[in-house]
Design goal:
The chain has about 110 residues and is an alpha+beta fold. The chain has one domain. About 50% of the residues lie in helices and about 20% in strands. It has a 4-stranded antiparallel sheet with strand order 2-1-4-3. Strand 3 and strand 4 form a beta hairpin. It starts with a helix and ends with a helix.
């Protein structure tokens, strides 16, 4: 039952983020896009601590998100050549749930 719930949430996240990419006011401003994506993510997955990053080769530069506490055991996920996320508490999700979220995000950030 929880897997169906996660699938519905990830499908909604995928749809909402794709709408942001289609909106010219977001697609031209990286920081604004990251903030909007973070807002969607936090509405659907408020329990997760996520930081969004812009990738410059081997260096990841913080864009937005996160909390006061930063875990040393975070999950680093490259969404494409330009963007990635770090999830500080990925351990609260099952491997299947985490994979569904990652796949949905990667599909949006093609």
């Amino acid at each position: 039952m929880r897997e169906i719930y996660t699938y519905k949430k990830s499908a909604e996240m995928r749809q909402r983020i794709k709408e942001l990419f289609d909106n010219p006011s977001y697609s031209t401003d990286e920081k604004k896009l990251a903030l909007a994506c973070n807002q969607v993510f936090m509405e659907l997955y408020p329990e997760l601590k996520v930081r969004w990053a812009r990738i410059y080769g081997p260096r990841w530069a913080y864009l937005c998100g996160g909390s006061e506490e930063i875990s040393i055991a975070f999950k680093k996920i490259r969404l494409n050549d330009r963007y990635g996320i770090c999830i500080d508490n990925a351990h609260i999700l099952s491997p299947g749930e985490l994979e569904e979220i990652i796949d949905s995000l990667k599909e949006c950030f093609v």
